[in-house]
Structure formats: C-alpha cells, structure tokens
Amino acid sequence: MPDPLPLAIEDQIVVALRQIIRAVDLHSRRLVDEIGLTGPQLVTLQVAARLAPISTTALARAVHLSNPTMTGILTRLEKRAFIERRRSDADRRSVTIDVTPTGQAILEQAPSLLQDRFREELRKLEAWEQQMTLATLQRVARMMGADTLEAAPILESREETLDPSAAGETPTWPMPPGLRPGPEAP
C-alpha cells in the first residue's frame, strides 16, 4: 500500500487542535471517574482550601467563574459534605466557605489538573517562546470566533452545567455522540 499523502498544513493544524481537545476531554473523564468531581469543582475545592474561610463572591472571582456557576458548584460540593457554608456572625448576609475534613481527604486523593502539567511545561520555555505561544493561541481563538467567550483558566471540557452528578442524571454532552472524538464516546 502506498504511503498516504501528507496532510495539508491546515489539516495538520486541525488535527493538533483535535488532539488538544481530546487530551482535555480524557483528563476531564479521568477526574470524574477517579474522584467524582469535575474540573471546576476540583479547582473550587482547591482554592477554597487554600483561602478559607472565603466568601462565595471572592471564591468565584479567584476561580474566574460567575456567581451563579459558583453557587451551583458549591451546592454540589456541600451535598457531598466537601464544604460547609457559614453565615457570618458580624453580617448575617455574608456567607463564608470552609472545606470539611471529607473535602480535605478528597483533595489529597485528587490527581493534578491538566493545566498544572501544562503550566510546568510552559515555565520551561524561554520568555520569547511563551509570548509566541500566547500570541499564536490568541490568534487561533480569534480565527475560531472564540476570542470573546469567557473562559476560566481551567483545562476541562465539561461545563459545570453539564455535570451529570448534578442531578444524578446520565451525562449530557455539548456535541452529538456521532461527532465526539474517540472510540469511547457515549
């Protein structure tokens, strides 16, 4: 059988983008499978543990998520006894978040987040390489019309609103099953 023709540069770029998306998706699934948390839930728990006691608004800001999204995450974490919400004695309108011993235990078991490894590798690059990578990725985001989308610095593909554990549902995905990459797609 003859060697296949080399892919055009545009196709090679699309393949690289799909590989990145696939790596993020696989890591997201691993988090849910291993510890039952989505990326945003794990990041929220990590930041809450580091900054506790912290208000919901300050936590949302620290994790770069909207207040309504943060409220949903905290509700799910509280149902699983990973966090406690407490009203302030000084101001009853103010609520602070504390991580419970159960939450601390899950943090000790949690694998590192994908962005942790990525950040480590980025730090190894020269400053000019980091700037070039940033400029290229920002341009790719613009080319895809994604430059105006809000995004937290969390490399996880499942949006918190699609978290299947939220209501004990089967997973719902942002793309139809036939379009999801990989053989293990639902």
Textual characterization of the structure:
This protein is mainly alpha-helical and 186 residues long. It has one domain: Arc Repressor Mutant, subunit A. The chain is 53% helix and 6% strand. It contains 7 helices and 3 strands; from the N terminus they run ααβααββααα. It has a 3-stranded antiparallel β-sheet with strand order 1-3-2. A hairpin with a 7-residue loop joins strand 2 (83-87) and strand 3 (95-99). The longest helix is centred in the first third of the chain and has 27 residues, at 9-35.
How would you describe this structure in keywords?
elongated; 3 strands; Arc Repressor Mutant, subunit A; 3-stranded antiparallel sheet
Q: Tell me, rounded to a whole number, the average pLDDT.
A: 79
Tell me about the largest β-sheet. Answer: 3 strands, antiparallel
N→C terminal distance: 33 Å
Low-confidence stretches: 159-186
CATH class: Mainly Alpha
Q: What is the CATH homologous superfamily assignment?
A: Winged helix-like DNA-binding domain superfamily/Winged helix DNA-binding domain
Main structural class: mainly alpha
Spatial strand sequence of the major β-sheet = 1-3-2
**Percent of residues in β-strands:** 5-15%
Percent range of helical residues: 40-55%
What fold name stands as the CATH topology?
Arc Repressor Mutant, subunit A
The string of secondary-structure elements, in order, is: HHEHHEEHHH
Q: What characteristic shape results from the CA principal axes?
A: elongated
